[in-house]
Every structure is written in C-alpha cells, then in structure tokens.
Amino acid sequence: MLTAQWTRKLPLIQQTAPAKLAARLIHTFLHDFPDIDMEQYFVIDFCSGAGGPTPLIEKTVNEARARAGHQAIPFRLSDFHPNLDAWMPLATHSANLSFIPQPVDATDTLHAPPLVVSKTSSMPNSTGDHKSIHLYNLSFHHFADADAARIMASTLTTADGLAIIELQDRTLGMLLLMAGEFFLLFLLTIFWFPYSPLHLFFTYIIPVLLFVQAWDGLVSCLRTRTFEETLALAEKALGQKAKFVSSEDTEIGEKVTVAICGDWKFVGVRRLHTWPFGYMNAFLGQKRL
C-alpha cells in the first residue's frame, strides 16, 4: 500500500507520483557532485524493506542521466533484515539496481559491508575504489534521536553524500491531509489492487489497512524532523556549528535552505507533492571536495 502511494499519481491533487518527484530532486542533487562522471558512485538505499520507491527512483534518475549523456549511477538496496525474495525480482529489471545480501545496520555503517563505505572514509575497511551516497526514503523519522545521531555520525564518516526524503512534516495542514487518508484509500484500493483479495478484504470487509495506514501517517508526521533539527544532528556529529548561507522560496513554489558545516554542505528542500498541504521534505548532504 505504501509503495503504491509512492509510485502512483493521485488524480487531480498530484501532478506526478511522489517517487518521480523525489527522483528529480535526487537527479539534481547528484549532478551537483563535481566528480560524479569521473568517479564510481553508488547510491545505497537504507531500510529498503520490500524495495519501496527505490526501483522507480533509480529508473527515473538513470533515464534522465542517459538523456543528458551521463553514465548511470548504480543503486543498491539494503536493510537490517534483507528481503531477498522481494529484491531479487526487482534487480532483474535493471542493470543498475541490485542489493546487499548481508544485514546492514543503519546506525553502524562503520562496520557495514565494504560497498557501503566510501574510499574517502578514514576507516580501515575503506579499501574500495568507489564513493557512496546514503539514501533514506521515508524511513529516517522511524529512528529515535539517539539512533538518528548514530546514523548521522556514521554517515558523515563513511559516505560522500546523504539524502533523507520524507513525504510529511509536523504542520497542521499535513496532519489534516493524513486524517483524510482513511477515506482516500477507501476510494482508491479497488483501482490499485483489483486482483488482491487480501487488500480488498482488509479494506472493505474489515478495514484494518485503512486504520493502520491513517494511524501510521499521523504518527510519522509527528516524528518527522525539521531541517534545523536534522542539521543539529550533523552539527553534533561534526563537532561544529553550521553557518546558514541562504534560504529562499523559488519560482516553482518550493523552499530551499543551504547551510555549511565543516567539510559538508547541507540543503533543505520543501516541495509540494500533494495539493494542498502535502509537502516533500528533503535533507541533502554533500561532502565538499
């Protein structure tokens, strides 16, 4: 159900599927790395579950890169509990999507498989010849502050980039939108899953899925960190105070905030994905050369 909400466009209130909107943002983010076409980069997706939006994001990003004449960027699925049964079929559909079969602990990437660790890391196991960007799709808010701080510290030590994508925030408008989730899914499930008896049963006979999705959405809103709160985790990890460079509203109705902390540049992007209150909030980090 959650993957469908990522990858399918809602009529009237969405201009495109949220996953494609996220892919456009990630494509622009990758293009900002000055050596992206000279070095081998990997995008490592953490907390992948059954795959979520990452296959569509990978496809959209690499199609855009191909049109621009750039080399493809491999994406790798990973999780603390690898879902190989779900990932193997997904990997057969793209030469640039694969997975890490070993468990990957997002809070301890210092001891993760070598593919996760960039060659720029100072850790002993950074023996590869690649660079890595760590991606969290609608998952970072699940971590308590202590674990989120460990993730940030590990990431800033072992990676060259960080992308945290959330489809919600703690605004009143988003909470109201989530409250309508129950009725929205009631209308759409028959069209999204017409041949899935379990989806139909637990939506229309015993509406467990509707309550679970609506409740999960409300809790996710309350747990989602602002750009400033996530930046504070980076400041703690780097042991330095960030300097805000700019904050502006663009012509396409999004807000972009830029800050510098040590060797890292952080960008916060807030972009509408579902009218009228559904905003995608991204925290992007780039290690400066």
Please outline the helices and strands:
Blueprint: H1 2-7, H2 18-31, E1 41-46, H3 54-67, E2 75-77, H4 84-91, E3 97-99, E4 131-137, H5 145-158, E5 161-166, H6 172-179, H7 181-192, H8 197-205, H9 208-223, H10 227-238, E6 243-249, E7 255-261, E8 264-274, E9 278-287
Helix pairs in contact: 2-3, 5-10, 6-9, 7-8, 7-9
Please tell me about this protein's structure.
It is built from 10 helices and 9 strands. By secondary structure, the chain is an alpha/beta fold. The chain folds into 2 domains: 2-169 and 226-287, Vaccinia Virus protein VP39 (Rossmann fold, 3-Layer(aba) Sandwich), CATH 3.40.50; 172-217, no CATH class. A 9-stranded mixed β-sheet has the order 3-2-1-4-5-9-8-7-6, sandwiched between helices. The mean pLDDT is 94. The chain crosses the membrane at residues 172-195, 201-222.
